[in-house]
Amino acid sequence: MPNKIVTVIKREYTTRVKSKGFIASLFLMPVLMCGLVALSSFLAIMEGKTEEVRKLAVIDETSEIFDQMQAAIAKHRTFQHKGELIYQVHRETATTEEERTVLQERVRTKKLYAYLEIPKDVFANGEVRFYARTITNSNVQSALRRIISDIVRDKRFAESGYSRREVSQLMRSVGFNTYAVKSGKGKDGGAKVESAIETGARLGLGYILVFVLYMFVLIYANSIMRSVLEEKTTRIVEVIVSSIKPHQLLLGKLVGVCSVCLTMFAVWVVFGVLLVMNIEPILRIFGIDSLPTPLILVIATVKASSAEILTYFFVYFIIGFFMYSTLYAVVGAICSSEEEAQQTGAPLTMLVVVPFVLMFQLFRIPDSTLSVLLSHVPFFSPILMFMRINVLMPPLWEILLNILVMCATVLLVTLISGKIYRVGILMYGKRPTLRQLWQWARY
Amino acid sequence: MNLLQLENVYKSFGDFTAVSDISFSIEKGSVYGLLGPNGAGKTTTLRMIMDIIAPDVGSITFSGNRQVRDFLDQIGYLPEERGLYRKMKVRDVILFIAELKGLYKQQALGEIERWLEKMQLSEWGNKRIDELSKGMAQKIQFITTVIHKPELIILDEPFSGLDPINMTLLKDLMLELRDDGSTIIFSTHVMEQVEKLCDRICLIHQGKVLLEGELRAVKRAFGKNSVEIEYIGSLEPIRNSAYIQGINDFGQYAEIKLKAPEDYRPLLGELVEKGVDVTRFELMEPTLHEIFVQSVEAHGGSVQDAE
């Protein structure tokens, strides 16, 4: 006889995998992520591009700075686009308020991009004023600031009898490299350490995975809730539970939907592994022959650490998925309409959102008592413990204990939920009170 | 031999007693009608038969076996409110339920085609459920109920919401399935269907059995208190007869309800005496509707609840 749980799993799986939404997100998610990276670098390139030349007026009350400034701007990359200078600097004199108003008016009507006022006492402690329609283009502002500061400093140095070269030689700061000391032994037998770039690469991967975990648990737990509700409102659930036990139906659903997520992850992991393994030939297609050293380090780190991180990811995803989805299934079972279910499910969403928000604070203090305690709260563990594993690997016993506690929680939640679910799917009308739910759980 | 037997079954939900001391048995190859107003406990009884909910007290046996759960694949169930997965294709939905009922895919696929053809829905097999008309969806749901050739078919209010054509179709299918050896139990409050279909009936009200037995015996027990006559002329002379409780006059034909079953004799005498030209005079059995209404009223219910 065919296994009936398998029949349920098959239906949950195939109807979802065949759906347009699944196929779309399978391809769109990586494309979107790559697209986001591409878009931000494209914007960075686009920045400063303009059709017309930007005019910059300078009121130089010292009469000593303008010439040097013009020369420096002509050489500075910030003021160029594709090798051509796109900023035109000219001198203005404005001594009265009226003349300044005229300049401001020209800025406002776009005749001028901006104007600068360099006060007479700039060599002592006078401050430069920059006026433009928008002051969000910080690149231009900080370049101007640096150019003027250099000119002013040169003059101060000259007056004091030093050369700028000598001073900057003396003033240069020391190199400061950071390393995370890891447990285990390094290649040369000494302590295992990790540079900031390596940590960054590992954390980046970890962040992406925490985000994926968070998103998928929410999306697919909701999907289960709607599916339970659909079966209840169409009453098809009555036919199903006249063939299999309600808890078998629930289990089939959870396994089926979980498999859908795992399928999607598997495709992405295979895709990602192929990409990382063949990164050099792929980049050669785009005409990039050699990578900068930091990037090589990033790729090496991802290669070395992804197996461990992904293993933990799958463990925490599966446990987290069952923990939350079972609760969402109960919400579906005790409600009679989509709106009601959304409302009832809202507090549950907090169980996922709260650890996700906390994570951004706790990752700075991964070994604080607060972080450790919160990461052991069963419903927070999938996100917070996984975060800790990424940032600062807790001792193995702590991870194993945590997994054990979570499995126990899943078991307990499933047992209670299964009972409520069993009664709920056959009850129509008013949503039960908490007291009734307690009664159902004890049937 | 009894296929299904319920003995002294009780079920309550909290303070509410849904079913109280229900007993009946269904012979293999018969059609059994479970009658009663809404809220009488019909659906609860049917759910207990399928072990969807467990009775508090009492026993339910299937083919003499108390573990009905082991026989669920031999039961087909049509719930009162209909519905299927709206986004699934017709064939996929039927296949899913057939597999749940223990059919292998290959077996099921052949049966699906046979049934779709029988219902003249073959071209609709690849459409999604939400593209079907209501009538078609009801037919598909009926297919899912019987696709696995169940020994016992449980239909909860199968006639509700059907148009007359589909009602006749369903009635014919039920009789066909019975002739093929299936046993059918269905609940209803549409009495005409019961009279045409049932071998036995059980009338329940407020969770209790009011009447149970062979349809003909139940009717006989209620006695013949109606008369049908055909006449020429007018019925005016007997309109106020002491024996008549009510007349439904159609001009040349009338249904007369008597005050007591034995009143037909004096009534016949009165008709002759008053000179009404009677061409036919026949004693009628009470309709099930009348029995139903009377029984419910006798137990403190009202006809409005029952309809």
Q: Could you characterize what this model shows?
A:
The complex is a heterodimer of chains A (443) and B (307). Chain A contains 16 helices and 8 strands. With 443 residues, chain A is α/β, with parallel strands linked by helices. Chain A folds into 2 domains: 54-169, Periplasmic binding protein-like II (D-Maltodextrin-Binding Protein, domain 2, 3-Layer(aba) Sandwich); 195-442, no CATH class. Chain A has a 4-stranded mixed sheet, with helices on both faces. In chain A, α9 packs antiparallel against α11. The two termini of chain A are 31 Å apart. Chain B has 307 residues and is α/β, with parallel strands linked by helices. Chain B folds into 2 domains: 2-218, P-loop containing nucleotide triphosphate hydrolases (Rossmann fold); 224-284, Alpha-Beta Plaits, CATH 3.30.70.100. Chain B has a 6-stranded mixed sheet, sandwiched between helices. The radius of gyration of chain B is 23 Å and the shape is globular. Chain B starts with a strand and ends with a helix. Classes of the chains: A alpha/beta (443), B alpha/beta (307). Chains A and B meet through α1, α7 and α8 of A and β5 and α2 of B.
Mean pLDDT of chain B: 87
Low-confidence runs of at least 5 consecutive residues of chain A: none
Give start-end ranges of low-pLDDT stretches of chain B.
none
Order of helices and strands of chain B: EEEHEEHHHEHEHEEHEEEHEHH
Q: From the structure provided, what is the oligomeric state, counting identical versus distinct chains?
A: heterodimer
Strand order, largest beta sheet of chain A: 4-1-5-6
Q: What general outline of chain A do the C-alpha atoms trace?
A: elongated
**Number of separate helices of chain B:** 10
**Morphology call of chain B:** globular
CATH topology (fold) name of the largest domain in chain B: Rossmann fold
Helix/strand-derived class of chain A? alpha/beta
Helix content of chain B: 25-40%
Q: Number of domains in the coordinates of chain A?
A: 2
Q: How many domains make up the coordinates of chain B?
A: 2
Q: Would you identify the CATH H-level superfamily of the largest domain in chain B?
A: P-loop containing nucleotide triphosphate hydrolases
Please state how the strands of the largest beta sheet of chain B are arranged side by side: 5-6-7-3-8-9
